[in-house]
Structures are given as structure tokens and as C-alpha cells.
């Protein structure tokens, strides 16, 4: 396991307080899981205490979250200390099935947007329709690839590559600055 596992990005703990709060979220363990055999994948996930999400969906259990990223790709969000064991269990369960299981924890960063205008902030910087509750949208914000979803009441989570974390933070913070609401109240 990397010495840097579980670290925040090099952005520091700066938070942006506009009409929506933008904060880098504590980093979860992240595993990309690619497999074209839906039945085997569903069985493997069930065997490790996770559930296969609906198309474009998100499922949450005590063991972690599963995000639907594409027809043959899922992203698992886990406790960082559970990543190695989860990967070993999935490799064993999918032993006879072509599958790719990769720890991408150090490659991604997450931001939480909190406030009643969280959806509006994303709508200003993404061409995609906002996801319905329980869905994950994979698109872009500004000029970078990102995925986002509702993670609570008046809260959205955005995930992107760590290499563009500064740009993402600045873009989200600028879109969330006070006075930039589309219809100020």
C-alpha cells in the first residue's frame, strides 16, 4: 500500500464559501471494475456485500458505494483500508471471467458542493443534464472529465482526475461565488 494512500490532494484544505460551499472531500478508496459478464459481476458484488446499481445509478451498502460508469465499468468507493481485501475477494470471485480490477484511489479527487444551489453550480459549468437522485452523470465540467451525483439533501459530489484538481476546485468555487446565482433571491 502506498505511503500516500488516503491523502488529500496538494490543494491543502482550502474551502470555498460562496452561496454554495465547495470542499475537497476526504479521499475514499476507489476501485475501477470492468467486466462484460453482468451475471458474474452481480454475483461477485453480492458475495462481497455490494450491490450492482441500476443503469446510470449508484448503490450504497454498509461495505461501500458502487457507481455505474458505463455498460462494462463500475467505480467502487470504499474505506481506504478495505481496498486491498476487496480487490482480492473480487479477483477470486471473478477468477474465470475476464475482468479488470484496479486501485485508482490516488488518481482521483472528490469535491462536495453543499447548499441549496449545488445543482445550479453544476448546471452552469456542465453541458450534461443533472442526474436524478440515485443516478450518476459522467460528463465534464468546464474542460475536464468528471462524474457527479446527489450525495445528500442539498449536496452534490464531483469526482475528477487528481491531475486537474486545482482547475476543478477553482472552476467550482468561481461558479459558486456569492452573487453569481442565476436568479438571486
TrEMBL record:
It comes from the Bacteria. It holds the Pfam family SoxG. InterPro entries: SoxG, TrmE/GcvT-like. This is Sarcosine oxidase subunit gamma.
Amino acid at each position: 500500500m502506498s505511503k500516500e494512500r488516503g491523502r488529500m490532494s496538494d490543494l491543502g484544505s482550502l474551502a470555498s464559501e460562496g452561496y454554495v460551499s465547495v470542499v475537497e472531500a476526504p479521499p475514499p478508496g476507489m476501485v475501477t471494475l470492468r467486466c462484460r459478464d453482468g451475471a458474474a459481476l452481480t454475483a461477485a458484488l453480492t458475495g462481497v456485500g455490494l450491490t450492482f446499481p441500476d443503469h446510470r445509478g449508484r448503490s450504497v451498502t454498509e461495505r461501500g458505494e458502487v457507481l455505474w460508469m458505463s455498460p462494462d465499468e463500475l467505480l467502487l468507493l470504499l474505506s481506504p483500508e478495505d481496498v486491498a481485501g476487496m480487490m482480492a475477494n473480487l479477483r477470486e470471485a471473478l477468477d474465470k471471467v475476464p475482468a479488470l480490477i484496479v486501485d485508482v484511489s490516488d488518481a482521483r479527487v472528490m469535491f462536495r458542493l453543499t447548499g441549496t444551489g449545488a445543482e445550479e453550480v453544476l448546471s452552469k459549468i456542465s453541458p450534461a443534464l443533472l442526474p436524478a437522485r440515485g443516478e450518476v452523470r459522467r460528463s465534464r465540467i468546464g474542460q475536464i472529465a468528471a462524474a457527479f451525483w446527489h450525495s445528500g439533501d442539498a449536496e452534490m459530489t464531483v469526482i475528477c482526475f487528481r491531475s486537474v484538481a486545482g482547475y476543478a476546485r477553482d472552476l467550482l468555487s468561481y461558479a459558486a461565488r456569492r452573487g453569481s446565482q442565476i436568479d438571486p433571491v
